[in-house]
């Protein structure tokens, strides 16, 4: 451990929403955080997104900050109130709304628990893929309408289906692994311009050069790309029209990656189904067609860690803080130059 990371009079602040704090960083984890860092741990609940960091709570002696959902952005003003701050451990996924340019200018180390959050999202996605392959949404609609869903339909069942994965993110890679481990024998295609053929082969998938090729071949398209200017409406009306009849779009990434109007048209026609945990806009208006179509399920951004799963993120951040104090490599380190490519 280097001298500059020694305890001394330094402290650790845990800053996140008042509802999230007890789930993500309960007392036993705060105690563990203190043991690993040798610092006094100060939980600071934030209500309604108010910027309490520069207020009575005080961050003057804090060198490690554990953040989560509900923590205000780390602006220059906030950082001025935390002159000793050296490291931020984010007990959630994306840091894009949290980390400002001022953080990088101060050379503050940043870590994210995105890898820990990837588990619940991948599990949610794999469940949706299995249900989509079974034709669960149209089958449920037919049953509710008093009819029976015909057995042994040609486009029903998981065996031999082709799943197109858009983006080899933390979550995308877990989804690929889950599909490869399935007894269904899925064919898995990947579109990601940053992945080579060799890397795709190591993941156990086939890389395609064009998104159009993925859409033409896929029964199910699942989205795991980051939200960037380049990915906005990446899955546009033209690409949606290429997906096989009876296909399904699954989005647990960001709503802006899909052309909402184009998807609505395809689903309204009955040609495609959709499982959407994110939308554009978010939330959709109460009267939006996607909320009432029988072949569409919209959930309120719940694929990521929820409830009891939140502690996974806290545990990851706590262990990262321990690694930082010991001078070890951070497993969830976020670099300024790669931030645009992250979710």
Structural account:
The chain folds into two domains: 3-112 and 307-341, Rossmann fold; 118-298, NAD(P)-binding Rossmann-like Domain (Rossmann fold), CATH 3.40.50. Helix content is 32%, strand content 16%. The protein contains twelve helices and twelve strands. It has helices at 21-24, 27-37, 76-80, 101-105, 114-133, 136-144, 170-181, 197-203, 211-217, 237-242, 260-268, 310-325; strands spanning 11-17, 40-46, 62-67, 87-90, 109-112, 162-166, 187-191, 206-207, 220-223, 248-251, 273-276, 296-298. The strands form two sheets. It has a seven-stranded parallel β-sheet, sandwiched between helices. The model has no long low-confidence stretch (mean pLDDT 92). Residues 61-304 form the D-isomer specific 2-hydroxyacid dehydrogenase catalytic domain.
Spell out the CATH superfamily of the largest domain.
NAD(P)-binding Rossmann-like Domain
The share of residues in helices is: 25-40%
Count of DSSP strands: 12
- How far apart are the first and last residues' alpha carbons, in Å? 32 Å
What's the order of the H and E elements? EHHEEHEHEHHEHEHEHEHEHEEH
Low-pLDDT runs: none
Radius of gyration over all CA atoms, rounded: 22 Å
Average residue-wise pLDDT: 92
Number of domains: 2
What's the shape? Answer: elongated
Q: Major sheet, described briefly?
A: 7 strands, parallel
Q: What percentage of amino acids are in beta strands?
A: 15-25%
Q: At CATH's second level, what is the architecture of the largest domain?
A: 3-Layer(aba) Sandwich
CATH level 1 name of the largest domain: Alpha Beta
Which strands sit side by side, in order, in the main sheet?
8-7-6-9-10-11-12
Count of DSSP H/I helices? 12
* CATH topology (level 3) name of the largest domain: Rossmann fold
Q: State the secondary-structure class.
A: alpha/beta
